Amino acid sequence: MAEITKLIHKYLRHDKKFPHVWCPGCGIGIMLGALIRAIDRIGYEKDEIVLVSGIGCSGRLPVYVDFNTLHTTHGRALTFATGVKLAKPSLKVIVIMGDGDAVAIGGNHFIHAARRNIDLTAIILNNSVYGMTGGQYSPTTPYGMRSTTTVYSNIEQDFKISELAVTAGAVFVGRGTVYHAKLLDSLIEKALLKKGFSVVEVISHCHTQYGRQNRLGSAVEMMEWQRDHAVAVEKAATMKPEELRDKIVIGVLVDKELPVYQDEYDKIRERAKETIRR
Amino acid sequence: MLQGNEAVVEGALRAGCRFFAGYPITPATEISEILSVKLPQVDGTFIQMEDEIASLGAVIGASLAGVKAMTATSGPGFSLMQENLGFAVIAEVPCVIVNVMRGGPSTGLPTSPAQGDVMQARWGTHGDHPIIVLSASTVRECYEVTIHAFNFSEKYRTPVIVLIDEVVAHMREKMTLDDEEKIEIFNRVKPTVPPEWYIPYEDTPRGIPAMANFGEGYRYHVTGLTHDIRGFPTSRPDEIGPFIARLHRKISQHFSEIQMGEFYQTEDAEITIVAYGCVARSAKRAVREAREKGIKVGLLKLTTIWPFMRSSVEKVLQSSKVLIVPEMNMGQLSREVKRVNRGIAKVITINKVDGTIITPGEIMNRITEAKS
Description:
By secondary structure, chain A is an alpha/beta fold.
């Protein structure tokens, strides 16, 4: 059996939940593939994985995979994940979000989860638009672009999700694109293995909404754009800011050590018990 | 001597609560503060979240992982929790939310009592849904009601709201924690079938499916979308209808098990006061004073707020010609009383929203007026 077929049989709820809701050509499938390959390589048991999502196209991802899956409210996935992880630290908790999910309605939860350094992996599919509701602008829609709610042009500046995660204190931040699938595999694998709050931003395309409204072409053309505008983080270090203006820096942006919340809380428990003994 | 908020903590720990997520808010803060000390002592977890939305999110997550969990807040925070409260209802996740009511709307009166959240507790989250709401009028009841809240949430797989008011929360009364055996502790029913046979939202005679905790071998899907019996999103009317009906039925068919209250001198009462929370204390005093004067007055104290204790109200209507409903709001539960009354007795309301309590004297005045 081909490797891909084995993975499909092992991890997808293939006899229950298909066909899926995503448009042909969507990048979410590539991200899902990368996630499954990373999980398979590391060798996690399906029972120990909890896959949590918010609302939107990305929010529909967990229903297709055979883990403990939790499809929460819009923007709140990280808060549910925090509860799951703290209540049962032996579980591997992975959170899937979209750009609107993670940095608009869930922006506050995102920066605080990063600040606390809870052992979670957040994977954010950034396609610069609210796809499921029909193509409204999101916090990552670039200045000057069109959407169904910025038909005259977007006058807001966009968030850089990975840079936001770095500033908020995430111990691992990586950015990839759905074009660079192999890089994505390794970024997600590294993030899963990292103890603490790890983030992988996945630059994707929504040719159905964002692409159509901005005349960016088909899924293939939008992926070619990703190829042409991506710059490896090592090369970016040698480039001037103005050269990087329309570029996507991909690779590992941060990989550092900070005390992990659960380890610290274990110490708090010890201290609390000492106060009773005394 | 224990404070109402402290008694809530003791009740929660006794019920087996081992997870708390909350956000500081007056007049509920003591619950957070004390649990931040006590939970780590018993290998539980306390976390202060970034807001109340996050707090209830974390509580639901912890409960799904198999740990009894709660949060505590006041009106403004309770408003923020409505979103995830609906999630707990539709996904049938046991959890307890304590709302120490203050004057509203908005920031309102942070340190003054009120009972303005009775209807928010019932209908605050969007969509048609059942809910269990309990109240307390003494420190001991804060303890007992919190245990009942956890029991009901586990038994019926539903969020349970405990409404107490600032007076009861901050009042100190003598109470002993001597009822270790008195209140039985109930834990959620787990599946006994092998994982491949497990149907997470299957209908049962009691209407409550067995609940598997994350990580115990039963991999299933939890969603806020309307789902089929396997937990997967559905838009089929033939699946949606029975699902929503079961959500309501699992509470309504256990109506009598959820009813908690007290009939105080109501057997021969011509006038019955229907009250809850700190107002029930003033009402009890008024009953005693009236009885001393030879007026046949009784009190129906409601501990269960929702589902509304209609059968208890019907019972007092057998003897009473007048019902007095004092509330620290503009008349929220009195509407339910009137609905059940259907014109049988005269319903008099006493409403106060100035941040002060309704005194026994004020109730006594209405009793005297009603008598003349």
